[in-house]
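Re: Re: token formats

Sure, here are both.
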Amino acid sequence: MPRAADRTPGPTPPASDRRARGAAVEAAARKHLLAAGLRDVAANANYRFGELDLVMLDGAVLVFVEVRYRRDDRYGGGAASVDARKRRKLVLAAQSFLAAHPRLADGACRFDVVEADGDPAAPRLNWLRDAFRADDP
């Protein structure tokens, strides 16, 4: 059994390193989704309740994409970190986006998660379509 010290994460990298890593992973996720046929609508859309990493169209369906990076999956994949609190924030941000873009508000929408791990410059990606619903608890 690992000792407590073995489970303690290392030092937190500076915010600038986290931002650069996040930007690289989001760019890789965006490229992956574009190659799968989705179309760009917005990126890093900030609202009072939170940020939408990517907003895309999959056919006529508006897709709100949360990109989650983990260096490794030792503590669960990226989707595991999208807990009820984070889902609520994403739903509220999506509602704010739809209020600001009423022409997009009439169609179907969904929430996807792209899990990423490994090297941020060339991450392994796992796209979870319809990862959760706005009315999930």
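Second one below.
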Amino acid sequence: MAYNQYAYSQSQQPTSPGHGQPLQQPGVYRMSSIQGGGDPMGRRPSAMFGRTRSDAMTSLLTAEGPIGQSLSAPEEEAQDEATEEASEEPSVKPKFQAKLVCGIFDERPFFPTVLLVSLLLGALCMLTEQRELIREMCGGSWLFTNFFSVLYIVTLACLLTCLLSDPGQMSRQKHDEMQSAGLPLPKRSHKAWLYKRPILRFDHYCRWVTNVIGLNNHREFMVMCTGLATIAVLGFAVDAALLLWCLPQFRFPIFVVLHMGYSAIFGKYIMPIFTIHVGFVSRSELAKDYKNDEFWVLKDAETGGSTPAKDLDADIYNEAFDNDALTYDSQRNPWDKGWQSNCFTFWCTPRWTPDQLGEF
């Protein structure tokens, strides 16, 4: 059962990430355990990061990690910066901290290190050991070398961009103007404790780059995921082909075998993340929207009506969740214009212009 690890509790009243409005429903779900261990965290069902709808939420947890639970709601009222910083810090400081650009702290800074080192070692293996075997098997390796060189360079460049870039903080001037005028924050923006000002078109926090994915780095994140998925799939395929060619010759290239195992494990984790985010882009749905069930409903087969997932009672929600009965309702998503238009908007809308607020 997908939800048997959660017990219902009314001990907490989290805030909704949508424009700073408090939740009207008093009940929340307490996460009592996560596969592989984890600290208990209180969340209502539509706001939890650790649950799964099928296996989607498990993959999102793999990408975001427990630290993603610390993201807070947008702030509508101006606050003193010192007070704001104090309120946004975790109650217990992580054992390991590493300061990156933009003042980011993460409890597990080794995640991007592991990803970077593994990619570099994979590239070294493919462009040395595998390259020589490809040359023996095919009589040449220029196509293999050029293709994987470009693939690794683009993927690593996008990874570093996601790691080091500002994800799209609202400018200080614009933020101050909106607060002074009492205006609501831009739609799809979200306040994260990593940054002092709201992130425009906030998607999610990614622990593998220890940064938020938002307006300014979302496209690079998708290119990075595409590159990582391609490296995993093609790497495994090339390793398998080389192994089949070498074994009849009584050759056992140990580095190819090791790289094949790495590609298989890497693909197991990256492919679900990649496919989930492709679905988000095609529906113009952000990961934050998905985790909060903004556009998901439970349909009544008898009446033909539907009830928003966020409005369901705990028991009904659990039953619907266990039976995978929640469905996406495009009519509830004002940003969904069809997958062709959604993809065009995602890839072609200018994002670095001063007046861009990410409301698309």
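The beta strands are 6-9, 28-31, 41-43, 204-206, 211-213, 296-299, 306-308, 326-328. The first helix runs from residue 56 to 64.
- S.
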